[in-house]
Every structure is written in C-alpha cells, then in structure tokens.
Amino acid sequence: PGAAPAYDTHPGLHDRHRAVMPEWLSLYYDRPIELVHGEGRHVWDSEGRRYLDFFGGILTTMTAHALPEVTKAVSEQAGRLIHSSTLYLNRSMVELAERVSALSGIPDARVFFTTSGTEANDAALLLATTFRGSNQILAMRNSYHGRSFSTVGITGNRSWSPTSLSPLQTLYVHGGVRGSGPFAELSDAAFIEACVEDLRDMLGQGARGPAALIAEPVQGVGGFTAPPDGLYAAFREVLAEHGVLWISDEVQTGWGRTGEHFWGWQAHAAAGPPDMLTFAKGIGNGMSIGGVVARAEVMNCLDGNSISTFGGSPITMAAGNANLAYLLEHDLQGNARRVGGLLIERLRAASAGLDVVVEVRGRGLMIGIELDGPRAAARVLELAREEGLLIGKGGLTGSALRIAPPLSLTVAEAEEGAAVLERALRRAESEHGGTERGASEHGGRG
Ligand code: PMP
Questions:
Q1: Domains of the chain by range and CATH?
Q2: N or C: at which end does the chain have fewer Cβ atoms within 10 angstroms?
Q3: Residue having the nearest C-alpha atom to atom 13 of ligand 1
Q4: Atom of ligand 1 lying closest to residue 117 CA
C-alpha cells in the first residue's frame, strides 16, 4: 500500500475528547490515534502514519478495509435512497436474512436485524424471557455481552459491568476461564464433567428455572479464551432436560473467524445448533449491523409489535450482502484457518523461553497471548504501535493481547506482524523481568 491522501491533523483533539465525552469511554494508547484512512489490512492516522491492523477495528472490519465491493454497494444505495423503515418491503434485508438463515444451521430460522451486538443480545433476552416466562439467565463467568442495562446484567467480566442493578436475575456458570482455582489442573474431560455437575446443581434449585444460557464460544473481551471443545454439547443435554434455551453469542466468533468453523458453536457440534445465535461487528465490514437468529417458535413468541427503525436499513444491508458474498466467494474462512494457523505457530515460536508470555492460544484469526500481567500487556501494545502494528488487549485482568486481523490477511502480513510482536515481547521481557504475576488493573477494551 502506498501513502494515504493528506488529511488535516487535529492537535488538541484528545483534550477536546476528554472535555465532552464520558470518562468511562476509554481510549487505547498514551497518545490516542485518530484513524482517517484504510486499505486492505492497513489503516493510516491523521499524522500520515501507516499501521498494519491486527485488530480489525475491534473486529468490525471482517474482510478488508475499503473493500471495493462494499464501497460500491454502499455508494450506489446512498445515491438512490437513504432511508430506513421496516414498515415497507426491503429487498436487500430479505436477501441478507435468507443468506444468514441458511448459513445459521438453525432449522426453520428467522432473522431479526438490529444495529449492534448489544441490541442483538437484548432482543435475544426479550425472546428467551418471554418464551420461558422467566427472568433468570445463565451466563458464563468473565463474559461480555454488551453495554445496555440488560446486557450489562449478564456480563460476567466485572470491569465491563458498571452497574449491578439489573432487571434480570443472573447465575454465573463455570466453564469460561479456568482461573487459578480448583479447575486449573483438571484435564479437559474432568473440567467439562465438573462444569456440567455445577450446572446440574444450579438447575436443580429453581421451580420455574432459567430462561436461557447465553455464552460466547470463545470469550472475546475475556481475552480470546475458549473452553474445551464439547463443553456446550455436554451443557446442552442438561439444559434440554430443563427446557432451558441456549443462546450462542457469535458477535466475535461468527463468519469463519475461528477458521475451522463458520460459527463458534460448531466446535461443540454434538450439541446441534443453538436455539438462538446473535451476530454483529464484522458482517457489515464497519457498517452497523447486528441481529438475532432464532428458530421460528422462539422468534414468534412475542405478542405485541417490536420494531427497529435502523435495524435492516437498506444501506447497511447493501454492505452486509456485498461483504458476505465476498467472504464466501474468496473462502476467507479457509484463509483464516491457513494464515491463522501459521501466525499462531510463529507466535508460539517467538514466545518460547520468554517468562513474560504465559500462553499463546486461539484458532483461526482469533489469537490471544496471555502475558504475566496487565503492565506487560499495556507495554507491548505501545511498543507494537511504535512499530506500526495495531493489536488489542483484554482478559480477566487486562493481561491478554488480542489479535484479530481482517480475514483476508496474507502470509507476508502475518509474518510482518509476528516479527513486530516478537521484538515487542522481547523488549517487554527485558524491561519487566516477568515479575508482575497477580497484579490487577482495569481490564482491556471491548
Ligand atoms: N457480544 C460480544 C461477544 C461482544 O464482543 C460485543 C462487543 N465487544 C458485544 C456483544 C456488544 O456489541 P456492540 O458493541 O456492537 O453493542
């Protein structure tokens, strides 16, 4: 990629941001970046610096920045009609719903479009609680499901759950991260068995029982941690005995990002499809699309009307259709598997012998590097930025690095990013000496 067109710089923008935006709207980096341009897997800031994007705009850029197919579809629609209402027929919304319904794996699936992942999960909660006549929800420890009043109430990661005044009664189930407690040393099979027993105990308690279990197949904000394959298949059996629904939050794991599977739930395939799945982020390649897919009986359980003014707007649907078609035609799931596989191997080799790295984990282009503390993670984030690489962080204590590039990442770009990370990790190792285990700090950015 060449130089980006010249853009105006905005000195003092950070101070202006601080003066008018909420304090809890946190920004990455000591000197936050203003992104003004993107092409392929690269973005440019307002000072003309180019970055290799290993965080895909927090996973919103699923295929590539400025994908010509998406830009064309959006500008053609913008030239015809910018308008939104689900009160009129909308061909591109019906087309995307047909595609998503067929891809979902859920039989007789219905699709409802929203504008964000939060709203998608909110809709799933509305459906599940109504369908089951219960306001109890099972969620996973360390989970993240959104920022609205109800989704904050099912978010297990405490640093992302800024109020406890939820209208829902949430019970947190084991199985997300093992932590350093009694689960730490168990084999995968023993861990699954222990979590299933824990779930059984919980379900034995209530007369009516919970409406649903909601879970991210790989915890995103939680630091790209996944339970052993098959956990949700085992959960599903127990849930089914009690009529409890299973909602798979695929906001980060959907559309082939994990390489091996199109959806995260498929790593637990014996479980069959979930009753509902929710999606957002990457499907619009930066345009705001979210949604919930549910089997018809569940989707149609509402008595009254429910509508989203901007959900399914023609302009976002045009982006979604073009983006999904590109993803499927170019087998970006296969690319995520191949290039992601190389990248994770390369990062494991780079981390060998470094005390600062606790674990390199993940699948496809969803790779987490657990460091020995949040200070090391913050430092590596800064060092990578200095060398022109954007990555994310997260995890239980903010000590995980998150790598989630656009799914069209090339082998050469993977090598380039891995080399930057290797240097940054080595430097963090020599500065920190791997001594901060157990230190706690505010978690990473969603
Ligand atoms: N679910 C998961 C798994 C997420 O990672 C996020 C966003 N980080 C959300 C839901 C919320 O999505 P949004 O920010 O679009 O509301």
A1: 13-63+331-432 (3.90.1150.10), 71-329 (3.40.640.10)
A2: N
A3: 117
A4: 12
